[in-house]
Specification:
The chain is of the alpha+beta class and 133 residues long. Helices cover 20% and strands 30% of the residues. It has one domain. The chain has two helices and six strands, in the order E-E-E-E-H-E-E-H. Strands 1, 2, 3, 4, 5 and 6 form a six-stranded mixed beta sheet that branches. A hairpin with a 5-residue loop joins strand 2 and strand 3. The protein is globular, with a radius of gyration of 16 Å.
Length: 133
């Protein structure tokens, strides 16, 4: 991830705030959060994605994020309700056969060594039905 990549500076919006009034919907995904290093060596976590299509704003939080991460993702969704997505603000325009054109933003936040430890522990947890000892 290049250091110059645009990042949201979104407010944290708690789950108690109903964002459906501004067209924000939270979806589910099976993707776990990921981490990457930018060209300055800073570690970032991708915690989810925000998509915008036809006035509908969808939040796709990744598995393993906590409530504070979700608040940031919700803040990005709220920001998308009043600030039009564009290439200049870090959004990517995508096309899907069923969905048509839509804007997508990969939400990244600053990470820490502790985040990487937690992810490693989470990945090592046995899968339900796993019989390996």
């Amino acid at each position: 991830m290049p250091h110059s990549y645009h990042r949201f500076h979104a407010s944290r919006i708690p789950a108690s705030v109903d964002l459906s009034r501004v067209g924000v919907i939270t979806r589910t995904t099976s993707e776990p959060w990921t981490h990457s290093t930018d060209d300055l060596g800073d570690i970032w976590r991708e915690i989810g994605r925000v998509t915008v299509s036809g006035g509908v704003i969808e939040l796709w939080p990744y598995i393993g994020i906590d409530a504070r991460d979700l608040e940031v993702l919700r803040g990005a969704g709220f920001e998308a309700s009043y600030r039009k997505p564009s290439h200049e603000t870090g959004w990517t325009l995508r096309t899907d056969g069923d969905r048509g054109d839509y804007w997508e933003y990969a939400m990244c936040i600053e990470s820490s060594a502790d985040d990487l430890r937690k992810r490693t522990e989470w990945q090592q947890q046995p899968v339900q039905g796993d019989t390996a000892a």
